[in-house]
Amino acid sequence: MNLEELESKFIAVFNQEPSIFRAPGRVNIIGEHTDYNQGLVLPFPIKQAIYFAATKRSDREIHIHALDIQKDTIINLDDVKLLEPWTRFFVGVLNVLAEDKFSFGGFNIMINGDIPFGAGISSSSALTCGFLYTIKSLYNLNYTKRDIVFLASRAENGTGVNGGKMDQFSICMGEENKAILLDCKDYSYTLIENNTQNASWFLFNSNVEHNLAETEYNDRRADCDEALQIINQKNPEITSLRDLDTESVNLYIDLISKKQFDRITHYVDENKRVLQMVKDLESNNLENAGILLYESHQSLAELYEVSCEELDFIVAKLKEEDYCYGARMMGGGFGGSVIALLKDTENDFKDLKKSYFDSFGLEMDIIPVVSKNGIEKIK
Ligand code: GAF
């Protein structure tokens, strides 16, 4: 991202020197489809980010210029309505702040970034968190980065996908060279060293659009909620899937459907894999870390049913390569990216890209993952 260009464009349009804020994308090492059931996750913020150049205005208007999609609009703070779909995250944020009775005035904001859309690295959460952080910083609103996690999550949930809080937490609370072991039961967390020796994280973007993502994502949540309700009726002490383990879930096998049982099995196993992954990374046991990634993928594909042909293909191809410790689909699923842990390699991935193109007629983008700070003021 060229920050000078963002700044000079801002000055050309608004004739003021802006402050600049950065909200990164995120990857998740492991712990997929667990956050909304009080589970464990292991994400970290990355270099790709959305940047917000902004200044206060003396009126009640918000002038928004989104450079990457070449759109602009004006929202009046006294009449916030969703008129254009691309503004939904901004309107979501303004509604949440209004509900919480935060008061602030108008501002000019110019936005640009280098998070590829649809790659499953949370461009929408970066946009929502960054917009909130900009308002907080311009108007000195009295809330913390942690508060932004919860506000952003509410704002995004209001737009349709009933997501968990992993993405916002990683974007707001992450630190360079650390992964966050986050417990979504109480949102306590530990920062873990994220330095793999002679190996690096990569993303393989399938370039498959997640058409099914919204409905199917909400359906997976519903499967788990319904199963929990049935189990809770039988045993009121179980109030969250987190209260179950591999043995105890078997006690309810006759009460719930096969599909529900599979979903819970994924959840229970995935939490265990997160804890094991932390141990393996800490001891640099990358062979074992890789096995966990493959296991996670298999579970997401077969038990949670959130993968797709293209993601399965990429993981299977990587599994044949000596340079790959392990790989799995990442994020909500049905498209987006595979995350992989690779040994340092000279391989240019030409053959992999070609076989992917020959099979699906799609390009595959390969993106090295660089760990960076969470949300921050740049200037
Ligand atoms: C999406 C959601 F936004 C996250 O909260 C999480 O549930 C993830 O899918 C799956 O692990 O990114």
Give a short overview.
The chain contains 11 helices and 13 strands.
Description:
A hairpin with a 4-residue loop joins strand 7 and strand 8 (188-193). The chain has eleven helices and 13 strands. Helix 8 (258-282) packs antiparallel against helix 9 (286-302). The chain folds into two domains: 3-193, Ribosomal Protein S5, domain 2, CATH 3.30.230.10; 199-369, 2-Layer Sandwich (Alpha-Beta Plaits), CATH 3.30.70. It has 379 residues and is an alpha+beta fold. The protein binds 2-deoxy-2-fluoro-alpha-D-galactopyranose. Residues 32-33, 35-36, 163-164, 166-167, 331-332 line the site of 2-deoxy-2-fluoro-alpha-D-galactopyranose. Residues 32-33, 35-36, 163-164, 166-167, 331-332 line the site of 2-deoxy-2-fluoro-alpha-D-galactopyranose (GAF).
